[in-house]
Design a protein that fits this description.
The longest helix is centred in the N-terminal third of the chain and has 15 residues, at about 35-50. This protein has helices spanning about 5-10, 15-25, 35-50, 95-105, 125-140, 155-160, 175-180, 190-200, 215-230, 260-270, 290-295, 315-325; strands at about 55-65, 110-115, 145-150, 165-170, 205, 210, 235-240, 275-280, 300-305, 330. The protein has one domain: Aldolase class I (TIM Barrel, Alpha-Beta Barrel), CATH 3.20.20.70. The chain is globular and about 55 Å long. It has about 325 residues and is an alpha/beta fold. Strands 1, 2, 3, 4, 5, 6, 7, 8, 9 and 10 form a ten-stranded parallel β-sheet that branches. The protein binds S-adenosylmethionine, 6-(5-methyl-2-OXO-imidazolidin-4-yl)-hexanoic acid and iron/sulfur cluster. The site of 6-(5-methyl-2-OXO-imidazolidin-4-yl)-hexanoic acid (DTB) has 17 residues, from strand 2 and strand 7. S-adenosylmethionine binds near residues 77, 245 and 281.
């Protein structure tokens, strides 16, 4: 694990105590196995309220603009060509059909539109030019535009910035130590350099990970530590619960415990106070109560609609009912 540095020791010293006690029983001789949940969530709520309206949740909508056939072997991913999951490879969607989705998402209350492509990396040429035009047009709708296209070079990042891209999603996914159990076709360093290229172009960084892939608590600590130590830390941090998809090597992984999700969200909130913490994949397997606790602990964004990229999502009616029940509201 990379040593916690600047943000943990100097500016928020108590965070380290929460953080280490929270996940590890080995770091302090006399420390309890983990911080009591009320203590942790209370601290996260305090941080959350200093920087955000705790009643407001941003709604974002995903579009799978280029589905399936990906050459990478990310063991969680239904879109990898290495596994038989029933996801068919499709060409890049047309600008018109993506814009229809974006307009519908805006009309349904989303303020951010996220376009994902099952690519290992961006290649210059027709498809990339089309994505640049999609970004321009989403921005013209008055929405935040995010894309996740795999690895990109500094020049490609600059072109995305010029098109008006708000944010680029590229996840670290897990700890450096556990990473090789999950992906063999590109390295952690590759990921960090794409993130640096995004940052270098002045685009906001959206970077997070997945819980429930068989990693230990120490791996979760290490992931959150890596994210918090990006300098600056990401503006947007998706916390995904693994959606175990039949045909992938992780198909039999048990769904992550809800309280463990809440703890991770709380720690992310404490370590990255101004970031938008996104309760991302896996909400169909979470109770309303677990989601409510995640919102209390500082999650302030969800993906709405019936589908994520290829897997199911709770749907707008369910989410509206949940937010109303909680007395919370959608970000305008
Ligand atoms: N190909 C691009 C990339 O990998 O950067 C973009 C698309 S990829 C689907 C975006 C992210 O979705 C992954 O980094 C991973 O964190 C998340 N993801 C993919 N499959 C998932 C699953 N089954 N459960 C939870 N999260 C998943
Ligand atoms: C992220 O971290 N989660 C979103 C978004 N970034 C692109 C994607 C979740 C995908 C879940 C699996 C699927 O639907 O295929
Ligand atoms: Fe899936 Fe992205 Fe990995 Fe390709 S690079 S297998 S689309 S997560």
């Amino acid at each position: 694990m990379r040593a916690p540095s600047h943000c943990l020791f100097s500016s928020v010293p108590c965070t380290l105590i929460f953080y280490r006690n929270e996940f590890s029983s080995h770091d302090h001789d006399n420390s309890p196995p983990h911080t009591p949940l009320p203590t942790l969530v209370f601290r996260a709520m305090e941080v959350h309220r200093q920087h955000h309206d705790p009643l407001t949740i941003q709604h974002c909508t995903l579009s799978n603009i280029k589905s399936g056939g990906c050459p990478e072997d990310c063991h969680y991913c239904p879109q990898s060509a290495h596994f038989h999951t029933g996801v068919q490879p499709e060409p890049l969607m047309t600008i018109d059909s993506v814009m229809q989705q974006a307009a519908a998402a805006r009309d349904a209350g989303s303020t951010r539109f996220c376009m994902g492509a099952a690519w290992r990396e961006v290649r210059d040429g027709g498809d990339f030019n089309t994505v640049l035009e999609m970004v321009r047009q989403v921005r013209e709708l008055g929405m935040e535009a995010c894309v996740t296209l795999g690895m990109i070079t500094p020049e490609q990042a600059a072109r995305l910035a010029e098109a008006g891209l708000t944010s680029y999603n590229h996840n670290l996914d897990t700890s450096p130590e556990f990473y090789e159990e999950i992906i063999t076709t590109r390295t952690y360093e590759d990921r960090l350099s794409t993130i640096a290229n995004v940052r270098g172009a002045g685009i906001e960084v959206c970077c997070g990970g997945i819980l429930g892939m068989g990693e230990s608590r120490a791996d979760r600590v290490a992931l959150l530590c890596e994210l918090a130590n990006l300098n600056p830390y990401p503006e947007s941090v998706p916390i995904n619960a693994l959606v175990p998809v039949e045909g992938t090597p992780l198909e039999d992984r048990p769904v992550i415990d809800g309280i463990e999700m809440v703890r991770a969200v709380a720690v992310a909130r404490i370590l990255m106070p101004t970031a938008r913490v996104r309760l991302s994949a896996g909400r169909t397997d979470m109770s309303d109560e677990t989601q409510a606790l995640c919102f209390l602990a500082g999650a302030n964004s969800i993906f709405t609609g019936d589908k994520l990229l290829t897997t199911p999502n709770p749907g707008t009616n369910h989410d509206e009912t949940l937010l109303t029940k909680l007395g919370m509201k959608r970000m305008q």
